[in-house]
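Is this the right way to post structure tokens for a design question? Let me know if I should format differently. Anyway, here goes:
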């Protein structure tokens, strides 16, 4: 049996729909329960539902053989996991956004509010821009509005939330989609089962059964 960690929230529905098309289907009764670990109808898979940031942790440490999570989470976590498939679900982007008038009038160091401190630091560091990273866990759009930061780095889907708060995207750092990740040891020790899952998901994607969802995280 393969254990698959699924990111709870906005990616969960699309991930389960894609996996169901690949033959790993969870019954309606199990999904309707409050259980955080359920088996699929074939008995070949066990799904555990965890916070997005925890998916790479569970997979890297071998608690889960595989996982489905956004590329944004993987970039921030820098987890040592394999990424055999881009599942093409929950497409969005990590972007720099600032107030309509610009990035702010503060001289010197750029103050950046974000849920992605590693991604933000690497992005501005590569450009030689001195920054102070202000790590927030939610509502980063408020930071420039209230004067806490000059700009933000956040996950953006439609840009509607940004616009409603007087912000605009000034630069896209990278694209993000849902990815299948695999534990390195499981890739070897459970090669047949992992290979079967990868083949079935690849078949579904090749057939054009892409699931269009509401975004890979709390995007703006």
């Amino acid at each position: 049996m393969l254990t698959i960690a699924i990111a709870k929230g906005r990616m969960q529905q699309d991930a389960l729909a894609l996996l169901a098309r690949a033959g790993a289907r969870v019954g309606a009764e199990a999904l309707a329960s409050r259980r955080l670990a359920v088996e699929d109808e074939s008995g070949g898979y066990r799904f555990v539902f965890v916070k997005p940031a925890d998916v790479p942790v569970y997979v890297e440490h071998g608690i889960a053989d595989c996982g489905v999570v956004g590329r944004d989470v993987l970039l921030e976590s820098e987890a040592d996991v394999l990424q055999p498939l881009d599942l093409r679900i929950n497409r969005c982007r990590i972007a720099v956004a600032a107030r309509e008038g610009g990035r702010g009038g503060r001289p010197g160091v750029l103050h950046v509010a974000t849920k992605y401190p590693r991604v933000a630091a690497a992005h501005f560091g590569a450009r030689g821009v001195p920054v102070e990273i202000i790590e927030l866990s939610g509502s980063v759009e408020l930071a420039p509005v209230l004067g806490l930061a000059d700009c933000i780095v956040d996950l953006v889907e439609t840009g509607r939330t940004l616009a409603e708060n007087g912000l605009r995207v000034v630069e896209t750092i990278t694209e993000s989609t849902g990815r299948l990740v695999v534990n390195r040891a499981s890739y070897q020790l459970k090669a047949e089962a992992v290979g079967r899952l990868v083949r079935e998901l690849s078949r579904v994607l090749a057939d054009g059964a892409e699931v269009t969802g509401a975004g890979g995280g709390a995007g703006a």
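Format looks fine. Someone answered above. Worth noting: The CA atoms of residues 121 and 184 lie 28 Å apart. Residues 2-90+177-206 form a domain with the D-Maltodextrin-Binding Protein; domain 2 fold (CATH 3.40.190.10).
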